[in-house]
Design goal:
alpha+beta; 7-stranded mixed sheet; 5-stranded antiparallel sheet; 12 strands; about 15% helix
């Protein structure tokens, strides 16, 4: 009694659950043909309505071009929103970083059409990813999947060569977008930290 009381207000953000949350038996998932696979993933469930991937090209990427890339992503996002198409977004470093040397300095509104965002090593550019930003919290609030991909570590896969081999619907030398004929196979188990993106459901998956 008589002691000063301290009240702390905790901000709680709503989490939108718009995915197929059927359980996945990961022991039966073959990731050998995955476009993207990581063991540091957030999100849960499956997405069966995405056929577009936009990614930053590794052979021409320069950390000095991150602001230009951010501008182009905004234009692409607006175009995809007009077409009512969601997409996967893959790029180097920290998405939404205020430091353009650490990643692409996009705002959340610039990439609001993305349903899955991956931070991947591009060439020799592989800064430490960050999950402690206000931008990052928007991902969980809006049910957006998130992968950290460092090829060669924990079995991670980022098959940029396979993406480069697909016909582009957009390519300005820095940013490239591809569209498959049908939806991608996307499955995430954030509780186990694993996620996969493939052109079709793995043969060993029985769900």
């Amino acid at each position: 009694a008589g002691q000063q009381q301290i009240f702390n207000l905790l901000q709680i953000r709503p989490i939108i659950d718009n995915q197929d949350n059927r359980p996945i038996d990961w022991s039966k998932v073959d990731v050998s043909d995955a476009l993207i696979y990581g063991e540091n993933a957030l999100g849960i469930g499956m997405m069966g309505d995405i056929a577009d991937i936009i990614y930053i090209k590794g052979d021409t990427f320069d950390s000095l071009s991150t602001e230009k890339i951010a501008e182009e992503l905004l234009e692409f996002n607006n175009r995809m929103q007009d077409e009512k198409r969601s997409y996967i977004l893959v790029g180097p470093g920290r998405w939404g970083s205020s430091d353009s040397a650490l990643g692409i300095p996009v705002r959340w509104a610039d990439i609001s059409g993305a349903r899955l965002i991956a931070e991947a090593a591009v060439g020799s550019y592989c800064p430490e990813p960050s999950q402690g930003t206000h931008f990052f919290h928007n991902l969980t609030s809006f049910g957006v999947g998130y992968f950290t991909i460092a090829p060669g570590i924990d079995g991670a896969v980022y098959n940029a060569d396979a993406l480069d081999a697909l016909d582009a619907v957009y390519d300005d030398g820095l940013v490239r977008a591809v569209r498959l004929d049908g939806p991608l196979y996307i499955a995430i188990n954030g509780r186990k930290g694993v996620g996969v993106v493939a052109t079709q459901a793995p043969a060993k998956n029985d769900i």
